Automatic annotation (TrEMBL):
Entries under SMART domains matching the protein: HTH_ARAC
Record keywords: DNA-binding, Transcription, Transcription regulation
SUPFAM superfamilies xref list: Homeodomain-like, Regulatory protein AraC
Organism: Bacteroides coprosuis DSM 18011
Name recorded for this polypeptide: Transcriptional regulator, AraC family
Domain of life: Bacteria
HTH araC/xylS-type domain residues: 187-285
Length: 287
């Protein structure tokens, strides 16, 4: 059996115990569970209701304060550092299995790189109140043992919040965060990958686009993420492939062509290299 390529860079993997999980008025006690850096398999959307705290997201330090909305997509590396003042948070999270049933690369095409680069945006006024009400409602529903939540409700709510988050990013002026040169290169590379991953999977293509040598680009990505350029490209390709396998009726051959692989066999080998199983086995396992 082919060995699975490590896309996880040695961080512990964290998923949710149920398809959807929401809590209101989370305090530092729960956040302390994330004192050790970990990599999310789930997708989480959180709102800071009170106080402030220091966190790292994708190895970058942030200060989260009241009114900040946090988007943590699958694959995000997170770590809670400390509370600066007493914190209260609300959040809704969707398990890896649940969020893989939507195609993030299609829903968030215009904003995916913005969410990764700037996972925290400040909200206020009516939007802040609406987000708090939404998260409170889901907290009440998901923690009510008498409630049987139909999967379609979870799915459509997840799509709704994703579209809402994309809208928040798309309707705000985009100002790239001033980083060091390595982080700027990583940001620009990620943007290019989200635009070209269905057609280009060679590191040389992206190095040329960024006017860098392949070695310089490789070293930079390793410094920022701990992984390789090909790992980063593959993470986006595999995310799209998994979503197509789980959320559409497309055949493996149709998906291969949609992602611009020369043959279904070539796509199958690529998928198995990174996932550890064939596309058909993955589709059948998650039916």
């Amino acid at each position: 059996m082919a060995s699975k390529i490590n896309l996880d860079f040695d961080f512990p993997q964290v998923d949710l115990p149920s398809n959807v999980l929401a809590w209101h008025n989370i305090t530092e006690d729960l956040l302390n569970l994330y004192k050790q850096a970990c990599k999310l398999k789930a997708g989480i959307f959180a709102l800071c209701l009170k106080g402030s705290m220091k966190v790292t997201i994708n190895l970058i330090d942030y200060t989260v304060k009241e009114g900040d909305f946090i988007t943590l997509l699958p694959g995000t590396i997170i770590q809670f550092k400390e509370a600066i003042s007493p914190v209260k948070m609300s959040f809704i999270g969707f398990s890896a299995n649940t969020i893989s049933q939507v195609n993030l690369m299609e829903i968030a095409a215009t904003s995916y790189h913005k969410m990764v680069e700037k996972p925290i945006i400040h909200v206020e006024g009516h939007l802040l109140k609406h987000l708090e009400d939404f998260l409170t409602l889901w907290s009440n529903v998901s923690n009510d043992e008498k409630m049987q939540i139909h999967p379609s409700i979870i799915h459509h709510s997840m799509c709704a919040i994703l579209i809402g988050v994309v809208n928040m990013y798309d309707t705000r002026p985009y100002e790239p965060i001033a980083r060091n040169r390595q982080e700027e290169i990583y940001r620009d590379l990620l943007h290019l990958i989200t635009q070209n991953y269905t057609k280009q999977r060679r590191a040389q293509f992206y190095a040329k686009k960024l006017d860098l040598t392949p070695q310089h680009l490789s070293t930079t990505v390793r410094q920022v993420t701990g992984g390789t350029v090909l790992d980063l490209i593959a993470s986006v390709v595999i995310m799209d492939a998994k979503a197509k396998l789980k959320s559409t009726n497309m055949s493996v051959q149709e998906i291969a062509y949609a992602l611009n692989f020369p043959t279904a066999s070539f796509f199958g080998k690529y998928f198995k290299r990174y996932v550890g199983m064939s596309p058909l086995s993955y589709k059948q396992m998650n039916d």
